[in-house]
Protein 1
Amino acid sequence: MRISSNTFQMQWLNAVRQQQEALVGIQRQINTGLRVSTAVDDPVGAAQVVLLKQGMDRLDNFATNSETARRRLGLEENALNQVTDTLSRVRELTIQAGGGTLPPESIKAIAIEVRALFDNLMAAANSQDGEGRYLFSGNRVQSKSFELIGGSVIYNGDDGLRSQRIAENRTIQEADPGSKVFSAIRDGNGTFAVDTSASNTGTAYFSSATLVDPGAWVQDTYTIGFPTTDTYAIADGSGAVVSFGPLGPGDSITFNGVSITLEGVPAAGDTFVVRPSRNQDLFSSVLDLADSLEAFSGNPVDRAQLNSGLNSALMNMDQALANISNTRSQVGARLNIIDGQRDANEATGLQLAEALSNVRDVDYAEALSTIEQQLFSLEAAQKTFARTRTSSLFNII
C-alpha cells in the first residue's frame, strides 16, 4: 500500500489544527475564568451548572421572600407595641377613674383622653406595609382593616393568612388577620363576664369576678337578684334558683365555681347577670369605657354604675393585653424562624457556589500547565511539519 507525501502532510496539518484549537480553548478559559461556557465544552458539566444555578436562583427567591416577611412582621410587631402601650395607658386611666373620689369634671377629662387613645388604637390597627397594603386585613390587603361606622367598629378584612415561602419545604406566616388580633378576644375574665343592669337604683357594684373552681363551672346565664337589700337569690337560665343567702357590703357570692364580690348596698329588685364570656373586639371595650365615663354625673347610683363599668373594662383590657402579648410572641417566634432559615439558606448557598465553581471555573494552575504543554506540542508539530514538507527521496540517496 502506497501513502503519498500529501497524505502525511494532511495528517500533520490536522494534528496542528487540533492542537491550535485546543490551545485557543485553554486560552479562552483563562481569559473568561470559566472551564465550562457551553455544553460543547463539557456536556455533563454544563448540565450540572444548570442545576446548580437553578438551586442558587431558588435561594435568591427565598432570600427575597424572607426579607419581605421579615419587614412585614417587623411592622406588625411595631404596631402591636403601639397597641400594648395604648392599652396600658387606657388601663392606667381606668384605675385612676375608680376609687369613688374624682368629681365628674375629672372623670370627663379622663374620657376625653380615652377617646384620643381609641383613635391611636384605630391608627395602629390600620397600619400599612409601605406598599399600600393593610397589615391586618388578612387577604383583603387593599381594604382598610377597621372603620368606625355608626358608633361601632367594623372589620373589613377576612380571616386569611398570608405566607411566604422561605425554603424548599417551609413557609412562614407574614401577618395576622385583625379578626384574630383585635376581635377574637373573650370579654370578662375569659370564662364569664358580669353585666350590671342599667335600671339598678342601689349603690351596689361588683369589684371582682373570679373563677375559683373550673371543674364546678356550669356554662349558663345566671341572674343575681336581691329580694331585699341584704339578701340575694341566683337563678339559672331556666329560672331555677341555684343559690341564695344573706348579703352584706363587701361579701362574696360563690356558686358553681365562681366568686363575685359586691360592694355597696343593692336596692330591692336590682340585678346583675353572670354569663359565659363571648368575643368582643378591644375597640368596643374602649368605647364602652368612654361611654361609662361620659355618663357619670356624680350621684351615688351613677358612681356604682361607673365602678361596675370600670371593673368590666379592667377585665376586658387584661384579656386584650393577653391576646396582644400572645400575638407578639408568635410574631417574635416567626422572626426567629426566618433568621434561622436565612442562616441555613446562606450555608446551602455557599455549598452550591463552591460546587458550581468546582464544575464551571478554571483551575488556573492546571490550565497554565496545560497551555505550556500545548505550546510545546504545537511547536514540535510545526517544526516536524516544516522538515517533512521539504523532504524528498533525493535528499536521502
Note: Residues 34-190+278-361 form a domain with the f41 fragment of flagellin, N-terminal domain fold (CATH 1.20.1330.10).
Protein 2
Amino acid sequence: MGPGQESVWDYPRPPRAQRVSRRVRIVHGGVLMVDTDDVVRVLETSHPPTYYLPRAEFRVPLLPSSRLTMCEWKGEACYVDVDVPGVAVLRDAGWWYPQPDLRYPQLNDRVAVYAGPFDEVTVDGEPVTPQPGDFYGGWITTDVVGPFKGGPGSRS
C-alpha cells in the first residue's frame, strides 16, 4: 500500500457513510449526466467505496425500475433506469434508498450508479474502474487497494 492509499480491508462493518470533498462526473454518449461535489461515499469491508450523489443534480431522467434488493444495513434499495435522451436507456443502472435505515441519514435523496454502463465516470478527474462482478457498485480509484469482493466466488 502506498502513501495516501486506503485498504478496503480497513473499512468498517457495518458500513460507514461519509461526506467527502471530491468531484464526480458521469458522461454517456456525450451527454453530461451529473457533475457534482456534493458527494457521500459508503465504506464497507472488502468493497471499494460506493458513491452516492444527489438525485436532484442528475441532468437526465432517473426512471423507476421494478428491481428491488435488501441491504442488511441500509434497507430496501429501489433501482432506477437512467434515460440518456437520444442515446440509450440504461436498465437498472443505479439505486437509492427511499427510506434508508436511521443509521444512514446521509443517503436521503441520493443515488448510486454502477460505473460500468457509462462511457465516463470520474472522481476528481480520475477514471473509475467498476468493482468486479454484477452486483456490487463500488468504484475503484488509485487511492484504494484490494483485493475487492465481487469477483468469481466472492459474492457471498
Note: The chain has a mean pLDDT of 94.
Protein 3
Amino acid sequence: MTQPTAESAIWLTQEAHDRLVDEVAHLKGPARAEISLRIAEAREEGDLRENGGYHAAREEQSKAEARIAQLEDMLRRAQVGETPANDGVVEAGMKVTVRFADDSETETFLLGAREMLGLDDSVDVGVYSPQSPMGSAILGKKPGDKATFTAPNGKDISVEIVAAKPFTS
C-alpha cells in the first residue's frame, strides 16, 4: 500500500480510526442488508413510479453507498497516530486556542480531521486541517508564539497561540 502524501493524509487517533472502521463494517453489513430488504419489499408493492417507500429506500441506499466510499477513501489516506503529548506544542490531534491580531476574542478548534469528533453532537468545535494555511502556520508553535499565514482571499492573517491541549472526544 502506498503512503498518503502529506497534502492528502488525514491524521486520526487510533480511537477515531477504529470508529470509522466500525462504521464501514456496519454500513456494508447490517445497514446494507436492511436497505436491500426494504427495497425488495417496496418492489413487491407494484408500480415503482408511484412508490414513495421504494424511492426513499433507494435514496437511503445512495447515501449509504456514498458514505462507504467516503469512509474507505479516508481510511486509505489515514495516518494513525497516538494522542499527542500534553506539552503545549501545536500538532495534529490538538485542541488549539488562538487569538487573531488586533482582536481580544479567541477561537478554539481541533487541528485534525472532523472524523476525530466522532458521533457526539455535543462537541461544538471547529476543525482545521494541519495542511490548511492556518494549520501549517501554527504547527510546532507554543502558547505565546505568533504565526502569520495567507488566507485563501490573499490577506495575511496573524494569530497568537493561547493554548494547545490534546483533543479528547
Note: The longest strand covers residues 156-166.
